[in-house]
Amino acid sequence: MSRKITSSRAHFHSIPPMIRNSLHHPTTQSDAPFLPKAPSILATNLIKSYLVKGLIKEARSLFDEMPDRDIVAWTAMIEGYTSCHYHGNSWVLFCEMVRIGMDPNAFTFSSVLKACKGMKALFCGELVHGLGVKYGMEGNIYVDNALMDMYATSCSSMDEACKVFRDIGAKNAVSWTTLITGFTHRGNGYMALRVFQQMLQEDAEMNPFSFSIAVRACGSLGSRTPGLQIHSAVIKYGFESNLPVMNSLLDMYCRFGCLPEANQYFLEMAEKNLISWNTLIAGYQRTDPSECLRLFSRMELEGFSPNCFTLSSVTAACSSLAVLACGQQVHGGIVRRGFNHNLELGNALIDMYAKCGNIADSRKIFGEMSHKNLVSWTSMMIGYGAHGFGKEAVQLFDEMVRSGIKPDQIVFMAVLSACSHAGLVDEGLRYFKSMTVDYNIPPDQEIYGCVVDLLGRAGRVEEAYELIETMPFKPDESVWGALLGACKAHKLPHLGKLAAHKVLDLRPTMVEAYLMLSNIYASEGKWGEFAKTRKLMRGMGNKKEAGRSWIEIRNQVYSFVVGDKMGSHTKWVYEVLELLIRHMKEAEYVSDLDCLIHDQHDRT
Questions:
Q1: Which of 258, 191, 204, 205 lies closest to 228 in space, CA to CA?
Q2: Strand, helix or coil at 312?
Q3: Interval 467-524: pLDDT, tens
Q4: How far, in Å, CA of 498 to CA of 446, rounded?
Q5: CA–CA distance, 285 with 265 (Å, rounded to integer)
Q6: What is the 3-state secondary structure (H, E, C) of 506-570?
Q7: Is pLDDT at 40 greater than 50 in this prediction?
Q8: Residues 137-165: pLDDT tens digits?
Q9: CA-based angle 132:136:138, to the nearest 5?
Q10: Which of 277, 388, 483, 524 sits a CA distance of 20 to 30 A from 214?
Q11: What is the mean pLDDT of residues 365-390?
């Protein structure tokens, strides 16, 4: 043991000689002999000091050189391993302690149960539970809370955690909060709020964390009413100035999509930190990317320095707006701050450049990444597919598999979509088969819809219909919608009518299906059916959503819709359009107006 320690001493700080001497050569005084404890309080405190600073090797070296270690020293080392996320080491050390006959105390049990939670090792946790009963730890609040937390994290359900909770005689705030947290992390906001309500009814001790986690549970429910009630309770109990609670409420309003309320609450906050700004920026990124970018600028003006989470949201906002120049500026800020090796930001930049039309820079960033995860490969494949580089997407998929990364359902969606856009039918069908045969991933509605689209784009519409007929579940509107689009493209009115009726059975308000169906009737000369279908569509009061295109020129984004007359740029647009029409006529191009001529009345 000592030879091993000596040989590895160069890799960490050596133990001060004074401490080593105090362990092996205790000093005495002439008048009153000093009887040092074994191990000394000084040594144990030094172990704790090392562990607080993350010096695991130094702490373990000192621990190993202690000739006599009491339960305090063992517990300090076990707790240190757990705190530093060395959960396996903590478990091994606990087992060693029990094997030599050292009796654990409540704090030892609490620490090792946290390690079991970190490892998500239910079997180990159950062993500790049984050992705790043997040593008479039932009823100890520290052990019971740690046990409940372990079961809430490691079990497939909350039943065991609830059983421990019910058996606790005098519950404290940690007991209640642990149970609420367990339900919330599992996405069961309803049960989390029921426990919180019971906590209020029993006049239990309230703390800021209880409110923060209850607010989060409200966000998962998607219902404003419980959230507003808890907001009132926050004010009642005097936690309205607690920053973590305020940030939780801000996040809740953002999740509800109540951005005006969230913004007003943000402005009224007496204190803000980076989490406050990140929460509001992320909220606007999902619903109003332009405001997200304005908030980011404001945040920097107020002296806050963005972190990776901030820059990830801002990069996503640039992706949504397809503003390349702005995205490049954000990229420059990422490099300047030294975040260019962050995996999540790298993935966001791949997506941003692809959506802004710069697939070459997407590939460059992908190639420069020292580490890639499944999201990295998927983002690059989606980018290739959107730009029509189906062969490159296929090659990337094969390269990913060779690198040892196992594809999931989203990856297959990406490669199938890329094959569909590039007309690589045989390759797409090969991947569809590989999905179930090689990876045992059952295809869902979206995958089937993708394969129907793949076959439909290639003109193999009958095969697409046969695939729908053999699906193991009832097709949804996305699958029938893909077939409907194929029938429109390849002028197959018989199957088109069937697909349109199927879509309308599932989604009666889908205007596009009514338009398609009425145009099919018109092309067949069935004007009575055409008029009936159009009457039904007008009776709904809905219109087909107009397609919108946009382009960025000199840091300015211009958008267009059919018949657009607004904006200073429209005069130049129509001049260019007239020029293009003249060129089309000179080239004797004949437009396909079959599906448009009947839509003029509705201006769709």
A1: 258
A2: helix
A3: 999 999 899 888 988 898 888 888 888 888 888 888 878 776 677 777 777 777 777 7
A4: 20
A5: 18
A6: HCCCCHHHHHHHHHHHHHCCCHHHHHHHHHHHHHHCCCCCCCCEEEEECCEEEEECCCCCCCCCH
A7: yes
A8: 988 999 999 999 999 999 989 999 999 99
A9: 70
A10: 277
A11: 94
Nearest-CA neighbor of 246 among 220, 208, 218? 208
51-55, 442-446, 498-502, range with the lowest pLDDT: 498-502
Question: Which phi and psi angles does 560 have, rounded to 5°?
Answer: -140, 145
Say how far apart CA 407 and CA 399 lie, in whole Å. 11
CB 263 within 8 A of CB 298: no
- Pairwise CA distance, residues 187 & 183, whole Å: 7
Residue 179 near residue 152 (C-beta atoms within 8 A): yes
Q: What are phi and psi of 551, to 5 degrees?
A: -145, 145
Q: What is the DSSP string of 230-245?
A: HHHHHHHTT-TT-HHH
For 263, list phi and psi in degrees, rounded to 5: -65, -40
* CA–CA distance, 555 with 544 (Å, rounded to integer): 31
β-strand partners of 559: 550
Dist. CA 347–CA 334, nearest whole Å: 13
Q: What is the pLDDT of residue 597?
A: 42
Q: Residue 126 corresponds to which tokens in the numbers above? A: 């159950």
Report how far residue 274's alpha carbon sits from residue 473's, in angstroms, rounded to the nearest whole number: 47
Calpha distance 248→222 (Å, rounded): 14
* Phi/psi-derived region of residue 440, left when phi > 0, alpha when psi is between -120 and 50, beta in every other case: left
Rg from Cα positions in the chain: 32
How many angstroms separate the CA atoms of 491 and 486, rounded? Answer: 8
First to last CA, the chain: 82
Structure tokens at 571: 């005069």
User: Distance (Å, rounded) from C-alpha 80 to C-alpha 55?
Assistant: 10
3-class SS at 416?
helix
Q: 334: pLDDT confidence band, cut at 50, 70 and 90?
A: very high
Structure tokens at 257: 């999509």
Pairing of strands 556-560, 549-553: antiparallel
pLDDT digits (tens, 9 = 90+) for 72-97: 999 999 999 999 999 999 999 999 99
Amino acid in position 435 = M
The pTM is what? 0.77
Round to whole Å and give the CA distance between 447 and 439.
14
550, pLDDT greater than 50:
yes
pLDDT of residue 520: 77
List Cβ<8 Å contacts ≥24 apart for 497-502: 502/475, 502/477
3-state secondary structure of 296: helix
User: Per the omega criterion (within 30 degrees of 0), is the bond before 39 cis?
Assistant: yes
Report the distance separating Cα 217 and Cα 223, nearest Å.
Answer: 10
